[in-house]
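Following up on my earlier message about iron/sulfur cluster. Here are the inputs again, as you asked, copied directly from the submission form:
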Amino acid sequence: MALKPVTTPDIEAATVELSIDGRTVTAKDGVSLYDVISSTGKIVPAMCYHYTFDPFGSCGMCLVTVEGKKAPVRSCTAKAAAGMVVRTDGDDLFQARKKAVEKHLSVHPLDCPVCDADGHCELQDMAFQHQVTNLANAKQKLIPEDTRSPVLDFNMNRCIACGECINVCKDVLMIDALQFIKKGGFTQVVAKGDTALACEFCGDCLAVCPVGAITNKYSKYLYKPWQLRKTTTTCNYCGDGCQMHLETKDNEVVRVTSPLSWKNKWGDRGDTAQGHGGICVRGRFGFQYIDSQARLRQPLVRRDRKLPEGKLTETPWLEAMQTVVDRLAEIKAKHGAQAIAGLITARCTNEELYLFQKLMRAVIGTNQLDSSSRYGHLNFVRAVQHSLGVGRMTNDWEDITKAKAILLVGTNITETNPLTAVRVKEAIRVYKSQVIVVDSAQTNIAKLASYPMVVTPGTEGLFVQGLVKSVIEHDLIDAETTGKHPEALAALKRAVADVSLETIAARTGISVELINEAASIFAEAPRAIILCAEGVVRRPDGYQNVLKLVDLAWITGKLGRPGCGVNTLTEEVNEQGAVDMGAAPEFLPGQARFDDEAARDKFAKAWGAALPAASSGANLMEILERCRSGAIKALYVVGENPVATLPASLDVRTALEQLELLICQDPFMTETAQLAHIVLPACTYAEKEGTFTNLEGKVLRVRQSMDPIGESLPDWHVMTSLASGLGSQFEYESSQDIQSEIMKLLPGYYNLGEPRTLSPRPDAYLSNGYVAEVGSRYGVVREAVSERNDHRPFGLVMGQLLYHSGKLSTQASGLLTIAPSAGRLHMNAQDMERLGLTEETRVRVTSEQGSLEMGVKDDLSVMPGSCFFPEHFNDPPIKDLMPVAVDSVTGVPYFKFAWVKIEPVSRDASAHATPQDKARDKAREKAKDKGRA
Ligand code: SF4
Ligand code: SF4
Ligand code: SF4
Ligand code: FES
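Thanks, got it. Here's what our run produced:
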């Protein structure tokens, strides 16, 4: 089991005194003796002990003497008790430990010269420390290497059977993909069932392995540890913002490791509620895009501006930038600043996002700008800013871990934010948290939850209404918090008066009893947290749905109390930073409203420029509309790819083809860049300095770990040159210079790794405006943009896979090996059977928007009546089947869900089978053969 704190937020363990090497030490009763010893600064040799899970006690290294015991004891598994007298040193202990090392080494291959762990191997260190030279009875195990997994190789000749890989997978990650078996006379680690490993491929087992028994296929034999330069930086895939080490050799990324691999496992045993230091599959195995051959290396300019005839031609930077500047200046002079707009990805750093909006507003003079936070996160930000006066989640990882109840709504958290998911798992496992999961799929987190509620697709928001209604109906209301706002409470009661739990039960598919049970679990928990994501914020009424969650938290007293709050999960790493830096038409940096006079004055003064008119802004959808109408003539796109992201019904391509000038700045030739007049090669996060703000609000460092690929430049550098070319002196020589400016304008923003505590302030909202607006968000609910009917009975969800993040990860060969574009619709086996489908059948999927052919595969997590397609691949372009609606308050476009018809068209999908599919098919065949035999 994971490292169970003997002291929890609810139970304080007794303090005891014991003697260690003659020194009196205090400790919590029952804690591992090894922990107590190391808290004194003494490091006892150990190999199988690790700070993330409970001791296993197999290696025999951590021996100490305890008065009254005849033989030395293993200090990791011994528990501290009052009056213990412990000795940690002495020749007897040295010899006993040396014997243990000899035992391990006597069956070890000693192939250190070709072992990945050479120089970072605990067995090597122990042998050295104990001067082990005599291995007279050594014998080889001669076990063939297990190379069946796509990313990890298992060399069981090197295994010391410490169990760390199994323990981290089972106890910390709760995935449980590995096991010991006895094979060929030796204990070996294999995937469960001794098949090819099919797991989340996070590589935490590799990180904790003290020797080189588990190796990374992508970096094996490519380096000796001393050849690698290790740079600590922040992952740029999801909003968890994990700390990781990019290890490079000769300007190539060789491998990615995590603090879990490098933390001193004997001395640093902080509370794992802060994070265990691991990373996920994307962080560890998704690095190849950084130095991929597909990277853009030089600027490209389309000399003949006519599309598509004119060709993009390699052009020197100076000339390309001069062309950008001249054309932008020309368009501005001819049509005014309102003819220019910009879009930026939330994978840029804070400094770049800040500079982007400053360039657009203070230099070009337009407030037509937006970022990828518009795809959903802004629904959350706008709703909590409106209701609570805060602009991000208010809890941190530690609050999540220690919550007594967690309500997860519309989030497949283990896929989108795997490391935040590990905190939820720890809450379940260590703190026995009650977890309620509301989602239309049988997600991995639902399998671990006490209350998995699999709802009809699109009804997550309706379910939240049910919870609010149930709390009111059963008088689970917190008198203290609601007592201050009786009128608001009365208005909410009126608003839900006509809401029928029976109707909600019928529409969501969850019984009234279960809705009531979930409501009471949440309301009665002393510390309860809400986590919502795509199934709420990226669905129709996303903004209103967040406000309903705020209502739920308010009436149950879960706003502002320690360990309680309403939170969201960000999919792209810097969605929070994009909003904080003002890369949205409604916000200036620091989330000041763009129409706030005092804020406008402050920034206009600081930037030495008048700001565009308060009402002149345009968000993503408005920008595209204005491109289409011809009002916008030039678009500056930094890292965004609307052509590949948005459905065909929006006709983004036509909108962009109207432009006189499309500038794309990107590390890759995206679908949008293919339409551009000028393409500027941008660096990835690995080639630049800066910061990201993760979902907890922690500002985390991005450090340059290699030289830019080709002639690519950091985005901030290009923006600085562009501003200078347009006549404004941006005097930034480094991202640090931009940081200094942000620090002056937003004091306290750079908390560098420490979450800033935010307290929700709902009073102003509850006493002003709440009564007037609450009625409109209850009652009639739009579950989806399209309507379900007998012809289109399947709810098609387009969503994220664990192995990918947006489109960026599709440039990472490591992730494509694990999860290639399969072109298959995921369906429930029952539905497949009912429709007469097999995995060889191709199907036609038809929505109101159109129809596409694709393969099909069964997926246990998909419920009957639903189907799923990964959003990362446009093969076939599933997004084009999606109807689009735009949130009337926030402008967020909804296009991830459609009602569809599924019909078989042929029986040959074998060409679309992935290696995993084929492996599974083979395994099935084998199982069938076994059965027949
Ligand atoms: S890679 Fe991760 S999920 Fe897979 S076996 Fe190792 S620890 Fe478990
Ligand atoms: S593979 Fe590594 S971590 Fe797993 S039991 Fe063997 S030595 Fe320990
Ligand atoms: S993708 Fe997210 S969870 Fe995975 S390593 Fe990166 S930041 Fe961490
Ligand atoms: S560290 Fe205690 S037995 Fe291995």
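One observation from looking it over: Residues 909-916, 927-933 have pLDDT under 50 and may be disordered. Hope that helps, and feel free to reply on this thread.
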